[in-house]
Amino acid sequence: MAAGCLSKQEAEMPAATSVAPATEATTTQVPGPVPGTRITEAYARMLARDAYLWGWPMANIYNKRLGFGQAPEPGLLGGVLPFAPVNRMAMLTDYIDPAERAVACPNQDVVYGGGPLALDVSPVVLQVPDFGDRFWVYQIVDLRTDSFADMGAMYGTEPGFYLLVGPDWDGEVPAGIKKVFRSPTNTGFFAPRAYQDDTPEDKRAIQDVINLIDAYPLAEFDGTVKKRDWSKLPVFPQPEGDGAETKWVFPETFLDQLAVLLDDAPPLPGEEPRYAALRELLAAAERDPKLKAAMVDEVKKADKDLVAPLFEFRNYGVPLPHHWTTIDNGAAFGTDYFTRTAVAKSNILVNKPQETKYFYQDLDADGQRLSSAHRYTVTFADGELPPVKGFWSLTMYNRHHFFEPNDIGRYSVGTKNKDLQKAADGSLTIYVQPDEPQDPVQRANWLPSPKDGEFSLYVRSYWPEEAITSGKWTPPAVVRAR
């Protein structure tokens, strides 16, 4: 067909209709409900319950900031726990005392320090001494209990001065600061740890090192190393209690604090709808006192039947052989709200997995609850001790996740103990029982359990090898003696 000529069929076809390109909607969707939307009591209860599970760790850390902030100066709470105002710290000079009840699951492998961070008040300078070949790690967490600064032996951190700043700080970094770590929240907590052998010699040797650990507001930084004699600290009274952990989260006032928590911790990616819904929930509670009363009632219920069971190690974590459990995202929980709250409830302030890998146990090899009514053994085969570059320990906790005084003052065994006795085949058996063994070898390897009640065991592996972080190594069974 000649160019420019149309067939009859083509000539009769309708002309093509041009289609205008699609245009974007003129309305913009916003996360969460429209402000002022009426909501039902059932919905308000559901959202309040979810908010409590989600916000429990943040309320815990925020109330530690408020509680510790009442200290007039660095000191010791009850003479047993580092207690300091915001942006400062206090340091122990030996293992933590068994009487400590402010923070569950302490350990007697390290010398602890601690203090609350209020980075909206001031940036904080951290002083790092030369630890030599001694294991150490500085735990530095934000309001969510996620770590935001990697400092320790496993990171090759050099001695010197480091700066912690809040999310909005834009000041000048003075000369002499090696590195700046920016927190995503203004509130946080600082908890240095330095390993100590259970020998008189090492307890003396560590003093010169820990006296150079310090934290203070940026305004006090002058480029010189500050030395503190941490053995001379004032003692502040510890609140009376029933043996359980000091209460840091209060269901009755949680909703009153929620707005502060939302302001302090900006939403993680994808959390914007959650934040919008919670802010509107608080607005609805302010408009309707009866609705708020229902929400407070639901929070109290959530505290009892949702959060309280997370205190038990067997109720969360990654299941392992022999009924052990573990977590793989310590201090890096992100949006794993369940694990974050479970850890905060049962053993808050855990390290990252590459710093410390934790293994939890409530049950024996047969799945029965560990109890002082029975004797148990934990046997590490030859070459099967926890593979670590730092140290390891097996710790005993009573039903409150604290130490219960015993006749020999031993609450954990591991690297720090120089008198543990191996069998002829190279294995190491730990004897877990309330009464003192008569056999000398068993006596050397005895980990006293409480005289009465249920208890838990807890393996720490500091600076774990790949076999632990990959899951190739897990703890042996806790075997009940027949």
UniProtKB/TrEMBL annotation:
Record-linked InterPro entries: DUF1214, DUF1214_C_sf, DUF1254, DUF1254_sf
Gene3D superfamilies: Domain of unknown function DUF1214, C-terminal domain (2.60.120.600), Domain of unknown function DUF1254 (2.60.40.1610)
PANTHER family per UniProt: BLL3101 PROTEIN
DUF1254 domain mapped to chain residues: 86-217
Disordered: annotated span: 13-33
Superkingdom in the source lineage: Bacteria
Positions of the DUF1214 domain: 356-466
Short name of one Pfam family: DUF1214
SUPFAM superfamilies given in the database record: VPA0735-like
Entry protein name: DUF1254 domain-containing protein
